[in-house]
Design brief:
The complex is a heterotrimer of chains A (201), B (465) and C (232).
Chain A lengths: L10 H21 L6 H4 L2 H19 L5 H5 L1 H9 L2 H22 L6 H11 L1 H13 L1 H10 L4 H12 L2 H30 L5
Chain B lengths: L1 E10 L9 E8 L4 E5 L6 H9 L1 H4 L3 E9 L2 E2 L5 H4 L3 E4 L12 H11 L4 H14 L15 H14 L4 E5 L7 H16 L3 E5 L12 E6 L2 E7 H5 L3 H7 L24 E10 L2 E11 L4 E6 L5 H9 L6 E6 L2 E2 L2 H7 E4 L12 H6 L7 H10 L15 H14 L4 E5 L7 H16 L3 E5 L3 H7 L2 E5 L3
Parallel strand pairs in B: 3-8, 3-9, 6-7, 7-8, 13-18, 13-19, 16-17, 17-18
Antiparallel strand pairs in B: 1-2, 1-4, 4-5, 9-10, 11-12, 11-14, 14-15
Chain C lengths: L4 H17 L3 H17 L7 H17 L5 H30 L2 H10 L4 H30 L9 H32 L19 H22 L4
Helix pairs in contact in C: 1-4, 1-8, 2-4, 3-4, 5-6, 6-7
The chains are: A mainly alpha (201), B alpha/beta (465), C mainly alpha (232).
Chain lengths: 201, 465, 232
């Protein structure tokens, strides 16, 4: 008899997702150090997705059920939602859509190493694509806003120039994908070397 | 009331692996209190998990046989229905509360059942006054001590009005005062006719409460005792069974104070300790001789852990100096000189195997030294296991081994024996004595009188100021 | 005095909106004063003098020091100082939300609002785990301090990886243990019951909530008007 492998999310799965979702959120908050200067800010998605990548692996292995990724995205989603009305709603809807995409890629048979990598890369797109959309698409409005809020003019001009180079967005997306990939690789290594070996997953 | 019929269980799908428990038959009458005792890993917790439904609902594996509650088989009863029949209290006070305030924590189970709010409130009032927890009622769970948290966990079992209460080592992380308090709660539960099943290592506090004692070994019930017979067992019989002491007693230091031929090496002078800006100890001072094992006892909040942390170099004492061989040690030097075995040893195991954990700070060690360390710590044969897959006692010994392997001269241990069975406790004691012969000083903060008696030469009692 | 969890959430979202719209420092100081007053009359521990000092320091830096500082220093500091400063009202609202809401209150309110059970449980656990995570992190940091974990590793990348591994492994192990033990405690208390949970801690919105919501909405409307309305 084996009732534990019910394929529907249950209380215990929500508990696991809640805990790891919070850790992922803390990782993202740590990565926010990157926003300290205009030039490094474009690498915030890359650094944040490194942490998210590690946790993504653990959640998708520990809770190999449908909609686990969607639940995992709840805390960042709530954070986005709280951080501003319009950007917040766009951001949280973005996370939900990308989580769905990741869910579709992960499919029924879980966990599957290759699928985890691909879906993880899709999942972290919310930081590089949605998180950076305002900066690259509405560059002028973004920079004018920054100026109006009192940020030093020289820096705003530098930012305007930088975000004016549109191919830089592709670089940001690529860098984020690379860091996610490294994060996922480390996540898998920790999974194999430690958590599975210790019998915790 | 409760009956187990040839229950067997093994973790995982692997049929080859030996099952955790096999052929467990037991029947418990209404109002009876059954105590399951036995060494760590003997299967007593597993038996409890088949009763409260964690097996097979939360932990997958191979389960045979049936559990009957009120003559009804629980095989196909969903977990949430079982939750309205059996209440549980677990061993770790930190991880069994879900809410941040005590009242909601107590009523959590009732709320999940969708009970009307006024019934919940009425039961809450009754529980609070029955268990005398008025002072904890409005406290935040995070401000409570382990003992207080555990009393709230008991209250949430009490409030449910379930007839069966399952307790899985509820005293494992508690100090003697807290154990006295939960003893009173268990006694109260028994008095109102609850059926109680307890798995425990600490046996003394259940004297007079338990009616029946089952000795479990190797996943089977080895012997069934009436409580009177069990508690009148001789000391030798008890040790033979590998059980912790049966009666409460004061510390009797048996090992005589030997005269030291050497000079003391470690000296603390005029140490003033503060915890969160609050001074807990003033002007402490003591000396330790090479190879000495010192016990530090005292009530909660007397600054025992703070003293260890100061010695370890994790916090600076407000005043005073710590010297080794006459040389004052900075915090940084102390961190390299002392090995600390934390209360929760899980935080300090970093590697992927026992071998690598020992070699973590000393990768050039030769095979011979390594195998002799493994042998002395009783970890031979486990070299390739993951540290986190070891039992509590093995983890303790591994942490000690790792500190010793990296040449630490002073070992600091914070409650090393909480939750350990008799044999593991003896092994930790034996290991400390062996290291003592090599000149390693051990300073042990503990409530465990049995452990102190078996290893310590001197004890210091810190009183709350 | 505490307000309802919904009120705090609306306040947080709208304060973030105001922050992004409003560019007038006087309006911002006004908002900060209002939130500080609310903190002072809220439950103990909501008012954090350190946060206010931080805010004051940032104001001082931006308006007094920047004009006299050399350009390079301004270039370095401007972005973090201004960004964090303008985000401060939201930070204060989050502090208010966190300090004045019990997990049970949040669960009860969300249940009444028909938020899916999974979402409610996940958020509740995340909030409950915040102090535990902090404690665990401190323990791991101390354990690492006591041992020279990167001894004998020369390559800087491998050293970094070793340190990261030593931080993450105990953290994950304890997170997994906590989630397993918490799950055991939760399922034995019927977390998966299909019944709608009783909401003992649910409170309907009261006069004070409506007042707070009205003030917040008015301030937001004012900011919207300043940005898009007549004055410009």
């Amino acid at each position: 008899m084996n009732r534990a492998n019910n394929n529907k999310l249950q209380g215990k799965d929500f508990i696991t997702c809640g805990i790891f979702s919070l850790i992922a959120m803390v990782g993202m908050a740590l990565a926010a150090v990157m926003n300290i200067s205009g030039y490094t800010a474009i690498f915030y998605p890359a650094v944040a997705s490194f942490f998210v990548g590690i946790l993504y692996v653990i959640v998708s292995c520990k809770v190999p059920k449908r909609f686990a990724v969607l639940i995992f995205g709840i805390v960042p989603c709530a954070y986005f939602f709280a951080s501003g009305l319009i950007e917040g709603i766009v951001g949280s809807v973005g996370i939900i859509l990308l989580s769905f995409a990741a869910e579709v890629i992960l499919g029924k048979e879980r966990p599957d190493s290759a699928k985890i990598t691909v879906s993880g890369l899709v999942y972290t797109l919310y930081m590089s694509v949605i998180g950076m959309a305002e900066n690259f698409i509405f560059t002028d409005k973004y920079c004018d806003d920054a100026l109006a809020h009192g940020i030093d003019g020289t820096i705003v001009e530098q930012m305007r120039q930088m975000y004016g180079i549109k191919w830089l967005w592709a670089v940001v997306i690529a860098a984020t994908a690379l860091c996610t990939f490294v994060g996922i690789a480390i996540g898998k290594a920790i999974m194999k070397k430690h958590l599975r070996k210790a019998g915790l997953v | 009331m409760l009956e187990l019929q040839s229950v067997s269980f093994g973790y995982g799908e692997d049929m080859e692996k030996a099952p955790e428990i096999r052929g467990i038959d037991m029947s418990v009458k209404k109002g009876e209190c059954v105590l399951l005792c036995g060494a760590s890993g003997c299967g007593k917790s597993t038996i409890l998990k088949t009763i409260n439904g964690i097996i097979p609902n939360l932990i997958p594996g191979r389960l045979d046989g049936s559990v009957f509650i009120d003559e009804k088989c629980t095989d196909n009863v969903p977990m949430y229905e079982l939750a309205a029949k059996v209440s549980s209290v677990f061993q770790n006070p930190k991880t069994q509360f879900f809410n941040t305030d005590a009242e909601s924590e107590i009523t959590y189970g009732l709320e999940n059942r969708g009970m009307p709010v006024d019934v919940i409130n009425e039961r809450l009032e009754r529980t609070v006054s029955d268990l005398k927890i008025e002072s904890l009622r409005y406290k935040s769970m995070f401000e409570m001590s382990g003992g207080e948290k555990q009393r709230i966990a008991f209250a949430s079992a009490y409030v449910s009005d379930n007839d069966i209460i399952v307790l899985d080592e509820p005293s494992a992380n508690l100090d003697p005062e807290a154990i006295d308090e939960i003893r009173a709660v268990i006694a109260k539960m028994k008095e109102i006719g609850k059926t109680i099943i307890i798995a425990e290592h600490r046996l003394y506090y259940l004297e007079g409460i338990a009616d029946t004692v089952l000795h479990i070994s190797g996943g089977e019930i080895k012997k069934r005792y009436e409580a009177v017979d069990f508690y009148s067992m001789t000391e030798d019989e008890r040790k033979e069974l590998g059980l912790r002491k049966l009666h409460k007693n004061d510390i009797k230091l048996t090992s005589e104070l030997s005269l030291h031929t050497e000079k003391p090496v470690l000296a603390m002078n005029g140490i003033t300790l503060a915890y969160k800006k609050h001074i807990v100890q003033n002007n402490l001072g003591f000396e330790a001789y090479p190879g000495e094992i010192i016990g530090i006892v005292g009530s909660n909040g007397a600054g025992k852990t703070t003293l260890l942390r100061a010695l370890a170099g994790l916090c600076k004492p407000k005043k005073g100096i710590i010297k080794y061989n006459g040389k004052a040690l900075s915090a940084r030097l102390r961190r390299r000189m002392c090995g600390l075995v934390m209360q929760d040893v899980n935080y300090q195991l970093f590697s992927d195997s026992v071998r690598n954990e020992i070699l973590l700070e000393n990768s050039v060690m030769d095979e011979q030294t390594l195998s002799s360390i493994l042998c002395e710590t009783g970890l031979s044969g486990l070299e390739d296991r993951h540290p986190q897959s070891l039992s509590g006692g093995q983890k303790q010994r591994l942490a000690i081994a790792a500190a010793y392997a990296s040449g630490r001269k002073i070992l600091l241990l914070d409650e090393p024996t909480s939750g350990l069975d008799y044999r593991s406790m003896l092994l930790v004691g034996k290991l400390l004595k062996k290291l003592s012969e090599k000149g390693v000083i051990s300073i042990v903060v503990t409530h465990d009188t049995e452990f102190i008696e078996s290893v310590c030469r001197r004890i210091f009692r810190l009183e709350k100021q | 005095m505490t307000l309802d969890v919904r009120t705090y959430i609306v306040m947080t979202v709208l304060s973030a909106t105001c922050s992004s719209l409003n560019t007038d420092i006087l309006v911002e100081i006004g908002i900060m004063t209002a939130i500080t007053l609310l903190m002072l009359i809220s439950s103990k521990g909501s008012f954090m003098p350190k946060l206010l000092i931080c805010y004051a320091l940032m104001l001082l830096t931006q308006f007094v020091l920047f004009p006299v500082m050399p350009q390079t220093a301004v270039s370095l500091l401007s972005l973090p100082v201004v960004n964090i400063r303008s985000f401060f009202p939201t930070i204060m609202c989050i502090v208010l939300l966190y300090r004045n809401t019990k997990v049970s209150q949040m669960t009860a309110t969300f249940t009444r609002m028909h938020v899916p059970k999974g979402v409610t449980i996940t958020l509740a656990v995340a909030v409950r785990y915040i102090p535990a995570l902090k404690e665990e992190w401190l323990h791991i940091r101390e354990a690492m301090k006591m041992r020279n974990v990167s001894a004998g590793v020369r390559d800087p990348f491998r050293r970094m990886y070793r340190r990261l591994e030593c931080q993450l492994v105990p953290l994950f192990v304890s997170a997994i243990n906590t989630s397993d033990e918490l799950s055991a405690a939760a399922v034995t208390r019927g977390i998966d019951a299909p019944a709608t949970p009783a909401c003992r801690n649910y409170r309907p919105l009261g006069m004070r909530d409506y007042t707070a919501l009205f003030i917040t909405a008015a301030v937001t409307a004012f900011c919207v008007w300043r940005e898009y309305g007549g004055a410009a």
